[in-house]
Design a protein that fits this description.
The protein folds into 2 domains: about 1-215, P-loop containing nucleotide triphosphate hydrolases (Rossmann fold), CATH 3.40.50; about 235-459, Nucleotidyltransferase, domain 5 (2-Layer Sandwich), CATH 3.30.420.280. About 35% of the residues lie in helices and about 20% in strands. It is built from 19 helices and 16 strands. The chain has helices at about 20-25, 40-55, 65-70, 75-80, 120-125, 140-145, 170-180, 200-205, 210-215, 235-240, 290-295, 300-305, 310-315, 330-340, 350-360, 380-390, 405-415, 430-435, 445-459; strands at about 1-5, 15, 30-35, 60-65, 95, 100-105, 110-115, 130-135, 160-165, 185-190, 250-255, 260-270, 275-285, 320-325, 345, 370-375. About 35% of the residues are buried.
Length: about 450
């Protein structure tokens, strides 16, 4: 299909697939092209970016989960030859500032591009429209953040456009575009076979896909992968609010990472040894010293709510015990935690046993309640949900290679640590700061004053 409808007079003609055409000219406030492999999602997204960026004074955002993946995929389609296809933006029609990540369209507006791994840069943007490639990778919080940036009046139709492969029906995008009824949103489906420009040998390879891979990546269906490891996890059952006052102590699972995310999962543990995930720290490219610094204060704002309001009682108050259960292969990180005065132990990394222990905690106990629950609005919970709802077995029945599993590791470490409801090896803040020769009875008023100051700093 060739179309120039609604485009400026100096725009070149482009040949579009029917679903691409429908997506490009949709005026919905939020629109999503949900397509299988080879359905031309990234290319039509780039055409839409250019369509909006040709408006003088407009600023259009182009995003993907990370800047690295954006440069390797979407930006190549926009600025370079894509196979036998020319770049979406013809050479000589723009000025590219690589250091500022901006593309100025001659006689038009500007495109700014970045990844969600640079949230401070995104927070200051004043956009007319925004477009996200492979949107299934982002969290709902990130989605809402972009939606809140669309306030530039130079745009003729402020929109948030998405291109994505399908994901599980539990994904927030499925709920937003398929289940919620909102006339300001539109979704367009595309199968691989809809793209009649694809070479036959590529289609022949796709034809060999079977099962859920065929459903999701060839037919474009939003289906859950078979072989989910935590198939007894349900948002309806396990996402529940619990008050911080219900917990006796706190256990934090830690998984080291740099290129992969560094993760901490903060669990409150009640008197019945039930675990409740309160918040998640999930960061890439974090230096070890910064990770240790973050760990020192991780969860402090939550635990501080337990402090008595009475000033006299508050002076004698001690924060509940925290113990960090760390990836046993991260000996250097554990040493850094200990040097910072943090109480920690090496995790039991028996993978199958740890998975089974975690699965058992998701099961309903005799009182009809699970022994592991999750705070619905807790910080970082979306990243945790993304992992647990895609954490599946490979053909060898082991966790599939290449999947995100760092939050899952930081969950099974505490589960194994608490296995059998055995009282954990905990150290209070007071005890951890005490000299080995000092007993509780020997704490002087001066020592108590110093302890109080330390508690103030920590909370």
């Amino acid at each position: 299909m060739t179309s120039t409808e609604g485009l400026p007079e100096n725009e070149i003609e482009i040949e579009l697939l029917p679903k691409q055409h429908d997506f490009l000219f949709s005026t919905a406030t939020e629109k999503m092209l949900s397509g299988a492999f080879g359905s031309g999602k990234s290319r039509i997204l780039c055409y839409d970016v250019v369509k909006h960026a040709m408006q003088p004074g407009n600023l259009v955002g182009l995003f993907r989960k990370t800047l690295t993946s954006l440069k390797a995929t979407t930006l190549r389609v926009l600025l370079k030859n894509d196979g036998n296809l020319p770049p979406v933006l013809p050479e000589g029609s723009y000025k590219h500032n690589k250091s500022e990540h901006t593309i100025q369209i001659y006689d038009g507006g500007e495109i700014i591009y970045c990844g969600f791994d640079d949230p401070l840069r995104m927070a200051s943007m004043n956009l007319g429209s925004a477009f996200i490639d492979e949107a299934r990778e982002i969290t709902e919080e990130e989605y809402v953040m972009v939606l809140g940036r669309l306030r530039n009046n130079a745009d003729f139709c402020r929109q948030l456009g998405l291109a994505t492969n399908p994901d599980a029906p539990t994904h927030f995008l499925y709920n937003r575009f398929f289940k919620e009824k909102d006339n300001s949103r539109a979704v367009f489906h595309s199968k691989s076979i809809d793209n009649f420009f694809l070479p036959q040998d590529y289609l022949d390879r796709l034809a060999k896909f079977t099962g859920q891979y065929r459903d999701r990546f060839v037919l474009g269906k939003w289906v859950a992968f078979e072989g989910l490891i935590f198939d007894n996890f349900s948002r309806d059952v396990h996402l529940v609010h619990r008050d911080i006052s219900e917990f006796k102590y706190f256990v934090i699972g830690v998984d080291e990472g740099y290129q992969d995310p560094a993760v901490m999962c903060l669990f409150g543990v009640d008197g019945d040894s039930r675990m409740h995930l309160l918040k998640v720290y999930y960061r890439r490219k974090i230096l070890q010293q910064d990770f240790v610094r973050a760990a020192n204060y991780f969860g402090a704002e939550l635990i501080a709510r337990l402090r008595p309001e009475n000033p006299i009682e508050a002076r004698d108050w001690q924060p509940p015990d925290r113990i960090f259960v760390i990836d046993p292969s991260a000996a250097g990180l554990k040493a850094a935690f200990e040097e910072a005065g943090l109480d920690c132990v090496s995790a039991n990394n028996a993978v199958f046993e740890g998975i089974q222990e975690t699965r058992d905690r998701f099961a309903l106990a005799g009182d009809g309640r699970p022994r592991l629950t999750v705070e619905p609005d807790g910080e970082g919970i979306d990243e945790w949900l993304t992992e647990i709802e895609s954490y599946h077995r490979g053909k060898d029945e082991k966790p599939a290679k290449g999947i995100l599993d760092h939050a899952m590791d930081a969950t099974r470490y505490p589960a194994m640590y608490l296995k059998g409801d055995a009282p954990p090896r905990l150290y209070s803040l007071e005890k951890s700061k005490r000299e080995d020769t000092e007993t509780p009875a020997e704490i002087t008023e001066e020592n108590r004053e110093n302890l109080y100051e330390r508690q103030e700093a920590w909370t």
